[in-house]
Design brief:
Layout (H helix, E strand, L loop, with lengths): L5 H9 L5 H33 L2
């Protein structure tokens, strides 16, 4: 099973195509992806602020 988008995950859950364990696993994968994206944005912002301070 691959990673689903949030909308796909909700649809599959509503259609009872996922077990509880699968849904939780998918939510954890989505959460990890969001955290990674947020960290990348924070790094980018820090670099921008550092460059602006020069």
């Amino acid at each position: 099973m691959g990673n689903y988008t949030l909308d796909e995950l909700i649809t599959r859950w509503e259609q009872e195509k996922l077990t509880t364990e699968q849904a939780v696993g998918q939510m954890l994968l989505l959460l990890r992806s969001l955290v990674e994206r947020m960290q990348e944005l924070e790094r980018w912002r820090w670099k921008q602020e550092k460059a602006d301070a020069k």
